[in-house]
Amino acid sequence: MSDLRQAVTDYIAVRRALGSKLECRHQLLEDFVAFLEAAGASTITTELALAWATRPGDDAHPTYLSNRLCAVRGFARHLQPSTRPPRCRRLSCSLAEMPAVPYLYSDADIAALMGAARSLTPALRTATYETLIGALSVTGMRVGEGLRLNRDDVDFDEGC
Questions:
Q1: What is the Cα–Cα distance from 3 to 84, expressed in whole angstroms?
Q2: Which of 6, 86, 91, 143 might form a disulfide with 66, Cβ 3.0–4.6 angstroms?
Q3: pTM (2 decimals)?
Q4: What average pLDDT does this structure show over 2-30?
Q5: CB proximity list for 2: less than 8 A, separation 6 or greater
Q6: DSSP notation for 1-36
Q7: Whole-number Å distance between alpha carbons of 144 and 125
Q8: What is the pLDDT of residues 87-100, one digit of tens each?
Q9: How far apart are CA 37 and CA 13, in angstroms?
Q10: Are 122 and 109 in contact (CB under 8 A)?
Q11: Would the CA dihedral through 42, 46, 50, 53 be positive or negative?
């Protein structure tokens, strides 16, 4: 096993131990290392990272190409923390570079969503979705934050 292949294995193990799922990044990184080996390179350079990231061609969506480069960026930072890894945004299209404008639900939208949740079955699902929608609307939490809540996150004595 080459040093770069071992480094990918170590990087994935560290990231997973820290809680990251990295569901497809390991495949991307293994493909990147194969690309480096085929090029006869033993280190990551911005030029090689860009060449690999753009391999799917011009018909690939710029966001997809940028995500490929981001996979390399984290790995490069892991290998050489003091160096500057390739920038992810370099391949982004103009729309991807614009900040996302959040959609703010009106009170009527929220009432309609909660009403739709009441039509779900079984009753536990109804209560879960109606409560989640209500909690998201009054707290400003993101969906992922709301889904990860558990009883220990609530202080019933203080009401918060």
A1: 20
A2: 91
A3: 0.53
A4: 84
A5: 33, 37
A6: --HHHHHHHHHHHHHHHTT---TTHHHHHHHHHHHH
A7: 17
A8: 665 554 443 444 55
A9: 21
A10: no
A11: positive
Burial class (CB in 10 A: 0-12, 13-18, 19+), 67: middle
- Candidates 134, 105, 106, 129; CA nearest to 118 is 129
What is the Cα–Cα distance from 76 to 28, expressed in whole angstroms? Answer: 13
115: left (phi over 0), alpha (psi -120 to 50) or beta: alpha
* Cis peptide upstream of residue 122 (ω within 30 degrees of 0): yes
Q: How far apart are CA 123 and CA 23, in angstroms?
A: 33
Q: What is the mean pLDDT of the chain?
A: 82
CA distances from 37 to 44, 54, 69, 120 (A): 11, 17, 17, 54
Q: For residue 132, give the amino acid letter.
A: L
Distance CA 111, CA 108 (A): 5
The total number of residues written for the chain in this structure: 160
Least confident segment among 65-74, 84-93, 96-105? 84-93
Which region holds residue 159: left if phi is over 0, alpha if psi is between -120 and 50, else beta?
A: left
Residue 91 and residue 54 in contact, taking contact as beta carbons nearer than 8 Å: yes
